[in-house]
Amino acid sequence: MSQKNTLMANVESIGSIASCKPFVPSVNTACNEVIAENFRVGKSREVLAKFMKDHNFTIGEKLNPKQRLQLLQLLYDYKNVFARSMKEIKQYEKYELNLDLLSNKRFFLKDSTE
């Protein structure tokens, strides 16, 4: 479990970006429409509205009411994968990560106690 005020990530300057390319949406919009059409909302509007209020998030205004309910249902179905606080984030004991570095440059963080 992480201690209070533990650094979880570091935001680097834009100069450290090695590559970037724009997102290109799927060309197969007919397939996406079929998937959206077949997605069924199983919970009532009241349950989903309470879920949204309890988790304190908002959904953009660009979605139509059906899309909004579908998104709420999807978030509700997978609510156990979202953490609402640092206390809910646990350490996975057997997780290993290999990072391929782009260079052999060493990184140092400035000591915040100075």
What features would you describe in this structure?
The chain has 114 residues and is mainly α. It has a domain at 34-93. It contains 3 helices and no strands. Helix 2 crosses helix 3. It is extended and about 55 Å long. The two termini are 27 Å apart. The mean pLDDT is 77.
Provide a concise account of the structure shown:
The chain is mostly helical and 114 residues long. Helices cover 30% and strands 0% of the residues.
List the uncertain runs.
Answer: none
Strand content: under 5%
Number of helices: 3
Give the integer mean of the pLDDT values. Answer: 77
What would the principal axes of the Cα set say about the shape? extended
Main sheet specs: none
Helix content: 25-40%
Rg, alpha carbons: 21 Å
Strand tally, please?
0
Distance between the termini: 27 Å
Give the H and E element order.
HHH
Query: Could you say which structural class the secondary elements and strand pairing correspond to?
Result: mainly alpha
Short key terms for the protein model shown above:
single chain; 114 residues; mainly alpha; extended
Give the helix/strand layout.
Blueprint: H1 29-38, H2 45-55, H3 65-77
Helix pairs in contact: 2-3
